[in-house]
């Protein structure tokens, strides 16, 4: 878990329940504990489906032993920029490939620490590709230690869950994708890069993301991210069935990789057992352990080894992960008829006014052949997509033609091809339109002064308006990002195509920063991103009495279609306001 400044508040409960002591002794199963002592009456929740297998915690611990050994061979650490991290990636990758997963190493080409290793993505190649449930954890450690609880525990639990899925090989109603993230300890950078690399269609297909960071803390509690959300319910149901009475993960809010997905509008949840915050008296009465002591006394230290693992909590976590996965993605029987869909080639480059073709292939993967209707989405203005034929019997192919108009703006456009039969599957085709060689000097941002409403800005558009307490640089409206005085994030985004043929692209904007922070420490930040790349980071330390014009060079993005994003992030302490106005993107 990445370290941020936090205000840790005490917690009081109306009633305390009977103690259920924590132990670090290995156990093979997580049988429901005895009923708690008399207390508040709660509605009974049915036990998880019997179809979810028990994940062998001793196998999870074997992975932790290997991660600890990898760290020992590499200076006692598995930090993202070191060989210990790369060896950890290789270990996990080899296990997954041998089990039949489609495994991809994704280099973090922007926003990560120098020399950071790749993200590792693994997908089980069965289930509806239009419905993806994703489970993730960061694989890197801090430089000070091997990171076996933080976050070998989450990484090893996910690895063994993935191997258990492959071993049982159940029929799948949805796709399951696993992610092991790089550079989390330097600022959630790996997961941030991954999420920003996804097209809007790909993000839409991810129905929920589940994060697991520090799930074996020796003095830990039982915490769930977004406890009352719909995404959290299968996870909560499992821990409720054990009588654990989990609480909201307030300590971890905004501090781990689920935050990257949350910022993109993807529902998130996950398990955690706590980091450097202290267990309350009420929590010790409920869960056991020691009050007024950190959940993990070895947090971010060299003593975070295999001796720093609560195997009972680890076991309860990994079985809850499996239970959640089975409830969301596994079905009792395979679709009677199913098929696959692919595009070959998966990309094409054209001049404006010309066209490209690709072959859309289908194959029957279960049952009998079926009729598949083909369609495409995501085409920009002036681009048409047609299929010949428009529907095929699975096992056959169609030719997709992508035609551009003479005035089609240069750029790169991901198109989503959908095949609809008894179920739906998708494939991605990326169209690149070359520039015409000339450049008409122009300003590309629409409503950069926020005077005409919120369109075409997306995200937290409630920040846009004429708000009391701040003033505009020009006109009467502006975007007030942040200023809450508690942990919060505001983001606004506009998608723009930077024409090819231009020599220069320059972004300018006016920003007023005011803050109640007094330390010269960057507690609250303001970032400008182009796609997945952070162009600049400002903070409360840059506060000034009035607006300051800022300038950024976007010349490297000429010929590209990008999401231009402004994000303000506050910690749990004093307020910092980032007031944005009169943004412009000029090309020449």
Automatic annotation (TrEMBL):
Biological processes annotated in GO: proteolysis
GO CC annotations, alphabetized: extracellular region
Cofactor or coenzyme needed: Zn(2+)
Key words, A-Z: Aminopeptidase, Disulfide bond, Hydrolase, Metal-binding, Protease, Secreted, Signal, Zinc
Main location: secreted
GO MF, one annotated term: aminopeptidase activity
UniProt entry tagged with the keyword RNA-binding: no
Family note: Belongs to the peptidase M28 family. M28A subfamily.
Subunit structure: Monomer.
PANTHER family noted in UniProt: METALLOPEPTIDASE M28 FAMILY MEMBER (PTHR12147), PEPTIDASE M28 DOMAIN-CONTAINING PROTEIN (PTHR12147:SF26)
Designated name of the protein: Aminopeptidase
């Amino acid at each position: 878990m990445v370290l941020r400044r936090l205000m840790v508040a005490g917690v009081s409960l109306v009633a305390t329940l009977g103690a259920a002591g924590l132990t670090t002794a290995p156990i093979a199963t997580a049988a429901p504990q005895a009923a708690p002592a008399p207390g508040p009456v709660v509605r009974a929740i049915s036990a998880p489906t019997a179809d979810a297998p028990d994940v062998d915690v001793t196998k999870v611990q074997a992975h932790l032993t290997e991660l600890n050994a990898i760290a020992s061979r590499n200076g006692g650490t598995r930090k993202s920029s070191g060989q210990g991290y790369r060896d950890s990636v290789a270990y996990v990758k080899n296990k997954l490939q041998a089990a039949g997963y489609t495994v991809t190493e994704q280099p973090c080409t922007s926003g990560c620490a120098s020399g950071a290793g790749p993200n590792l993505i693994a997908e089980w190649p069965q289930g509806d590709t239009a419905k993806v449930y994703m489970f993730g954890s960061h694989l890197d450690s801090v430089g000070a230690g091997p990171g076996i609880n933080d976050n070998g525990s989450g990484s090893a639990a996910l690895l063994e869950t993935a191997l258990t899925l492959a071993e049982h090989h159940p029929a799948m109603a949805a796709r399951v994708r696993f992610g092991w993230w790089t550079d989390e300890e330097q600022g959630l950078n790996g997961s941030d890069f991954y999420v920003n690399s996804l097209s809007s269609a790909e993000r839409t297909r991810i129905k929920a993301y589940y994060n697991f960071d520090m799930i074996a803390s020796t003095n830990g509690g039982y915490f769930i991210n977004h406890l009352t959300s719909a995404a959290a319910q299968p996870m909560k149901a499992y821990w409720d069935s054990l009588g654990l009475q989990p609480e909201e993960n307030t300590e971890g809010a905004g501090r781990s990789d689920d935050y990257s997905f949350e910022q993109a509008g993807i529902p998130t949840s996950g398990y955690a057992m706590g980091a450097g915050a202290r267990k309350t008296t009420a929590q010790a009465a409920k869960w056991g352990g020691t009050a007024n002591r950190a959940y993990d006394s070895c947090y971010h230290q060299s003593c975070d080894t295999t001796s720093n693992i609560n195997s009972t909590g680890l076991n309860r976590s990994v079985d809850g992960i499996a239970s959640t996965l089975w409830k969301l993605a596994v079905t009792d029987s395979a679709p009677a008829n199913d098929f696959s869909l692919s595009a070959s080639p998966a990309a094409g480059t054209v001049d404006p006014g010309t066209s490209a073709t690709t072959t859309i292939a289908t194959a029957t993967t279960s049952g009998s052949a079926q009729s598949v209707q083909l369609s495409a989405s995501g085409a920009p203005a002036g681009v048409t997509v047609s299929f010949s034929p428009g529907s095929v019997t699975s096992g056959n192919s169609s030719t997709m033609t992508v035609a551009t108009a003479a005035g089609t703006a240069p750029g790169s456009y991901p198109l989503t091809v959908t095949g609809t039969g008894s179920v739906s599957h998708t494939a991605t085709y990326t169209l690149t339109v070359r520039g015409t060689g000339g450049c008409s000097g122009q300003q590309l941002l629409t409503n950069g002064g926020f005077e005409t409403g919120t369109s075409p800005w997306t995200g937290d558009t409630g920040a846009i308006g004429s708000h009391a307490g701040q003033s505009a640089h020009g006109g009467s409206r502006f975007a007030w990002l942040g200023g809450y005085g508690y942990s919060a994030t505001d983001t606004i985004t506009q998608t723009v195509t930077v024409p090819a043929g231009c020599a220069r692209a320059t972004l300018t904007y006016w920003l007023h920063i005011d803050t109640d922070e007094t330390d010269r420490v960057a507690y609250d930040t303001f970032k400008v991103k182009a796609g997945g790349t952070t162009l600049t980071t400002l903070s409360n330390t840059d506060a000034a009495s009035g607006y300051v014009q800022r300038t950024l060079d976007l010349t490297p993005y000429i010929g590209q279609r990008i999401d231009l994003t402004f994000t303000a992030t506050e910690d749990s302490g004093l307020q910092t306001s980032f007031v944005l106005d009169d943004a412009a993107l000029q090309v020449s």
